[in-house]
Design a protein that fits this description.
The chain is an alpha/beta fold and 412 residues long. The protein has a single domain (2-402), classed as 3-Layer(aba) Sandwich (Rossmann fold), CATH 3.40.50.1820. The protein contains 15 helices and 13 strands. α2 (22-32) packs parallel to α11 and α7 packs across α8. The chain is globular. The relative contact order is 0.11.
């Protein structure tokens, strides 16, 4: 109780500009009070989950690419005990490769359940299938890295939506690390994300080194930015100079990464002058209404890159005196664009506007296609920052259609 009272006093002294509410407030309060229960091993030996040969398929084992059009790389522990394969919240014994299709609702014994068709594939076969699909298109690959509080089913749903919404002319690959899919699992997610840094950067390096990959469009959401940003810098250092040129279009949606750390490191990392000169670009989607990032700020003490929160009260006061919104953004860096979705925020947490807000979805589609400007963007007092405003001709109930989204009533 003493610790909790001290935390309350601390937050009265450093009261944020916006009050936390709902799940975000609960996450912040319980995390700071030390009340989150960490993940346990479970009641089944992990070896039992992977004992079936389908968890480690032999080379040449058939996979129906037509039925399973999307690609997955995962460090989650698979469960191959039943006819339907699943990917669990636990860390796997190694990285695996597979194919999947968009989740679908099915009736089982009178109850509705979500089923995600999935098959694992031998690594060599997986790379050959990815090459064949890439060669059939334009040599482009879209790589999606999810964030906090995601299961494989929610990741598959979002990856499928991105592929549909953008009409991407190449294969879509989802990288799925062992997030807990639990609002109180943030600390476990953060731990697993850092544990997965080596796995992800090795995969990204391998992908960038394939001569048949002409362009990699990387989309990260939330905590996934902390995998993506350092991995790109690693690949740039580790791969020959020609091999990372295909990493050119990077999109960070609601990135849960320290804003000041990003500002300090990015010019010497993913956005070096040489990479920008070769047309590398980063687009960041931010929102001041993002409750998840407000909770993350409360946990970490400093603002997140995906939220234009003014940590410096004097900077906020100066903006107010100039008649400008009290929103603070990362400093201008060549090759960086910030799109503020605060005014078109959607959902209970405002943490997935690029998949839920019609205005943000339209902008996102153009960015994936490689377009750097849009007439709907409103210029701000900062040259690299643009706002999106509501379109009177596009009511909120039209967002799902614009975003090509299948509504999920259980989604946050």
């Amino acid at each position: 109780m003493r610790r909790l009272r001290a935390i309350r006093v601390f937050h009265r002294r450093r009261a944020p500009a916006r009050r936390l509410s709902g799940a975000a407030a609960a996450l912040a309060a319980l995390s700071l009070a030390g009340c989150i229960t960490p993940v346990d091993y479970g009641k089944i030996r992990h070896a039992a989950y992977v004992a079936d040969p389908r968890c480690d398929p032999k080379p040449g084992a058939p996979v129906d690419g037509e039925a399973l059009p999307l690609f997955v790389v995962t460090s989650r522990l698979p469960d191959c005990r039943t006819s339907d394969l699943a990917l669990l919240v636990y860390r796997g014994d190694r990285v695996r490769h597979g194919r999947f299709a968009a989740p679908r609702e099915e009736k089982v014994d009178g109850k509705t359940r979500t089923r995600t068709p999935l098959a694992l594939q031998a690594e060599g076969d997986w790379w050959r299938a990815l090459q064949a699909e890439t060669d059939r298109r334009q040599g482009r690959v879209l790589l999606y890295v999810h964030g906090y509080r995601e299961s494989f089913e929610t990741t598959a749903r979002d990856a499928a939506q991105i592929a549909r919404m953008t009409g991407f002319d190449g294969p879509t690959v989802a990288y799925s690390w062992p997030s807990q899919h639990d609002v109180f699992g943030y600390m476990v997610d953060e731990t697993n994300m850092y544990h997965d840094v080596r796995n992800f950067r090795d995969f990204l390096k391998a992908l960038a080194e394939q001569p048949w990959v002409k362009e990699i469009v990387i989309v990260s959401h939330s905590l996934g930015a902390r995998l993506v940003v350092p991995a790109i810098a690693y690949v740039d250092r580790a791969a020959p100079s020609a091999d990372s040129r295909n990493i050119s279009n990077i999109i960070l949606a609601s990135p849960d990464i320290d804003r000041e750390t990003f500002e300090r490191d990015i010019a010497d990392g993913a956005l070096t002058p040489a990479k920008v000169a070769r047309d590398r670009h980063i687009t960041i989607y931010v929102s001041l209404r993002d409750k998840a990032l407000a909770a993350s700020r409360a946990l970490h003490g400093y603002p997140r890159l995906g939220s234009p929160y003014c940590f410096d009260p004097f900077e906020a006061a100066d903006l107010k005196a100039r008649g400008l919104p009290e929103r603070c953004y990362p400093v201008a860096i060549p090759g960086l664009t910030v799109v503020d979705t605060t005014d078109v925020s959607r959902g209970s947490t405002g943490h997935s506007n690029f998949l839920r807000s019609g205005a943000a979805c339209r902008d996102f589609v153009d960015v994936v296609a490689g377009r750097r400007t849009r007439p709907e963007r409103i210029a701000t007092h900062v040259s690299h920052v643009f706002r999106l405003l509501p379109d009177p001709a596009a009511p909120k109930n039209g967002d799902d259609s614009i975003c090509n989204r299948i509504p999920d009533p259980k989604a946050p």
